[in-house]
């Protein structure tokens, strides 16, 4: 029989359920309590009305919010790219050419090394409040190396994405069409059993719109659902292709035309913004305000990878989004929780109403606003995942 726990004395509770609390999208409740039963939230409301339970935790007048949902990361890799970062900070621009460096290091690494790396970044993320993460292949680019990356990732998360189409493998530099045939053929067959999603980097120098459509359509025929690296480095067809194929998410969205924004506003595709990438590549910021004002659903994630965004910290991304992408703290916190859940088409996470998975983050601060107000401060002081306290 599962035991129940009440967390009381919560100064601010973010439920992301507008039917609860103050009626805002964050569904804020002041002086709140949450009851956890097994791996689920059983009750949410004002502290004074909390039902009796087996165990009691005093939140000490601090804030509780849903665990962060990091819907975009690249965590199966070896090595790092410190020199490339250093060169960028001296004026060199980001081209994604460095992906080849990580491909070489990843191919050379043992399974144990890759998994040790992966768990290190997952622990890092967990300590910063991330309770659900998506992660991708994309640094193997052979049948064996891509399927191995997905197999290792699937040991740690259900949200696994096949990104054989990250760049054209250096082994196929003279014959990109043959690489697309591999990605949609033998490699897809080997990878599909380990993944839920298929992704493609739709960008000049990676895959064009026609190639991306062929890759995503082939993946869909094998039961994988599309998501797209779209419009990161330049304008292009990625965002509109994502909407056309009902992709769960178009990620980056840094260079958008009015038609791209209209397409997102009219479709079911979430715009996932990844400000860690703009930070680390010194690129211009995506225009979050324009998307939000058009009614687009926005998610916020880390894009954690050794090239363009080597941070596992959702709180850091929230602070960037508020300072540099003109999001309000409420919008940024929603995007990093409920928005991430929407980008993974999940309704059981990213909220703290009754029936939700009991994934909670306790801050050493009275309000979620402090995530942006106190940037760089390790505010996460407790994490529950599936009802169990893990931090
Ligand atoms: O999301 N844009 C493509 N892929 C990654 C970067 C990968 C890398 O530079 O290693 C991204 O930014
Ligand atoms: Fe990415």
UniProtKB/TrEMBL annotation:
The lineage of its organism: Bacteria, Bacillati, Actinomycetota, Actinomycetes, Kitasatosporales. The gene is hutI. It comes from the Bacteria. Its EC number is 3.5.2.7. Belongs to the metallo-dependent hydrolases superfamily. HutI family. N-formimidoyl-L-glutamate binds at residues 139, 305, 307. SUPFAM superfamilies: Composite domain of metallo-dependent hydrolases (SSF51338), Metallo-dependent hydrolases (SSF51556). It comes from Streptomyces incarnatus. This is Imidazolonepropionase. Pathway: Amino-acid degradation; L-histidine degradation into L-glutamate; N-formimidoyl-L-glutamate from L-histidine: step 3/3. Catalyzes the hydrolytic cleavage of the carbon-nitrogen bond in imidazolone-5-propanoate to yield N-formimidoyl-L-glutamate. It is the third step in the universal histidine degradation pathway. GO terms for molecular function: imidazolonepropionase activity. Its main location: cytoplasm. 4-imidazolone-5-propanoate binds at residues 81, 139, 166, 232, 308. Keywords: Cytoplasm, Histidine metabolism, Hydrolase, Iron, Metal-binding, Zinc. It is found in: Cytoplasm. Fe(3+) binds at residues 72, 74, 229, 303. NCBIfam families: hutI. It is an enzyme of class 3 (hydrolase). Zn(2+) binds at residues 72, 74, 229, 303. It catalyses: 4-imidazolone-5-propanoate + H2O = N-formimidoyl-L-glutamate. Its cofactor is Zn(2+); Fe(3+). Residues 64-368 form the Amidohydrolase-related domain. The keyword S-adenosyl-L-methionine does not apply. Binds 1 zinc or iron ion per subunit.
């Amino acid at each position: 029989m599962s035991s129940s726990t009440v967390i009381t004395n919560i100064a601010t509770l973010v439920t992301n359920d507008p039917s609860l609390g103050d009626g805002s999208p964050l569904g804020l409740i002041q002086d709140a309590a949450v009851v956890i039963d097994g791996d689920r939230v059983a009750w949410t409301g004002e502290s004074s009305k909390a039902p009796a339970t087996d165990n009691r935790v005093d939140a000490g007048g601090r804030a509780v919010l849903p665990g962060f949902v990091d819907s975009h990361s690249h965590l199966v890799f070896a090595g790092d790219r410190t020199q490339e970062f250093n060169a960028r900070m001296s004026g060199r621009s980001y081209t994604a050419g460095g992906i080849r460096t990580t491909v070489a290091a990843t191919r050379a690494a043992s399974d144990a090394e890759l998994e040790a790396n992966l768990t290190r970044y997952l622990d890092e993320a967990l300590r910063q409040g991330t309770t659900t993460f998506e992660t991708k292949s994309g640094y193997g680019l052979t049948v064996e190396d891509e399927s191995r990356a997905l197999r290792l990732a699937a040991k740690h998360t259900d949200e696994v994405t096949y990104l054989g189409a990250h760049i054209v493998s250096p082994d196929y530099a003279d014959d990109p069409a043959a690489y697309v045939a591999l990605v949609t053929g033998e490699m897809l067959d080997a990878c599909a059993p380990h993944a839920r999603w298929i992704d493609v980097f739709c960008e000049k120098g990676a895959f064009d719109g026609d190639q991306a459509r062929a890759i995503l359509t082939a993946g869909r025929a094998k039961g994988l659902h599309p998501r797209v690296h779209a419009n990161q480095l330049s304008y292009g067809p990625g965002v509109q292709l994502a909407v056309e194929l009902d992709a769960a998410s178009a990620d980056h969205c840094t260079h958008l035309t009015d038609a791209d924004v209209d397409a997102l506003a009219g479709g079911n595709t979430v715009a996932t913004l990844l400000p860690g990438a703009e930070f680390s590549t010194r690129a211009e910021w995506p225009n979050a305000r324009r998307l939000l004002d058009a009614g687009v659903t926005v998610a916020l994630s880390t894009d954690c990878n050794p090239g363009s965004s080597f941070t596992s910290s959702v709180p850091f991304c929230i602070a960037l989004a508020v300072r540099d992408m003109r999001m309000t703290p409420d919008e940024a916190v929603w995007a990093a929780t409920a928005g991430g859940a929407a980008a993974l088409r999940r309704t059981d996470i990213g909220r703290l109403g009754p029936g939700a998975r009991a994934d909670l983050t306790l801050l050493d601060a009275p309000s979620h606003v402090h995530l942006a107000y106190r940037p760089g401060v390790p505010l996460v002081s407790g994490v529950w995942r599936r009802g169990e306290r893990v931090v």
